[in-house]
Structures are given as structure tokens and as C-alpha cells.
Amino acid sequence: MDMDDASADVAEPANLRFLRRLVTVLTAVMILGVVILIGLLVIRLNTPRSLPLPAEIALPDGATATAFTRGPDWLAVVTADDRILILDAATGALRQEVQITRPD
User: For 50-84, how does the pLDDT look when each residue is reduced to its tens digit (9 = 90+)?
Assistant: First the structure.
């Protein structure tokens, strides 16, 4: 009987068999988790989340826009004469006007 034949006949210890199965299962779970994570990132990054912009905004006479931002139901326009105009997104009506003061 050859040495290789003798080692093939010896049964694998139970704790070694358990460890081998545990490593295999953990590897499969880790691969599945990475695939799910990549899939969720791809889905999340491809979903458009931008709010629609109005075609035009009517500003008060003499106001020149220098900056613009949008909220869920409002628009904010910063003017060259240091004012912030808060407008309703649906109607374009002026909701609030804030004067910007500069510290001395």
C-alpha cells in the first residue's frame, strides 16, 4: 500500500470539515453582498433626481440675477444689488425679499 492510498482512506476530522464549509458559505455570502451593493449603487446613481427648472423667471425692474437655487416649492434668486428674492415655483409670485447686509 502506497502512502498516498493510506492518506486517502483516513477520514477528515469533523472540525476541519465544518471549517471548510464555513469558509465556503462565508465566501458565497460575501460575493453575493458585493454584487447586491454594486447593483444598488448602479440603480441609485442612474435615477434622475433633479427638479424641473422654469423656462423663464420674471424679476422686478432693475434686478439682475447673479445666482439661483431651487427648493421643492420655491426658487431663490440673488441679485446684483444684494437682495435675495424668494419666488413661488408654481406661479413665479414673489414670496419674500431679503436684503443682504455686509459687515463693516
Answer: 777 778 888 888 889 999 998 888 999 999 988 99
Question: Is the pLDDT assigned to residue 94 strictly greater than 70?
Answer: yes
CA–CA dist 102, 10 (Å, integer) = 86
Do 35 and 71 have their domain in common?
Answer: no
* Residues 96, 73 share a domain: yes
Range of the structural domain that residue 69 is part of = 51-104
Do residues 56 and 41 share a domain?
A: no
Tracing cell 431679503 back to the chain, one arrives at 98
* pTM for this model (two decimals): 0.52
**Segment holding 39, helix H or strand E:** helix 14-46
Quote the CA–CA distance of 44 and 60 in Å, as a whole number. Answer: 40
Angle in degrees, CA 84, 63, 82, rounded to 5? 40
Domain count, the chain: 2
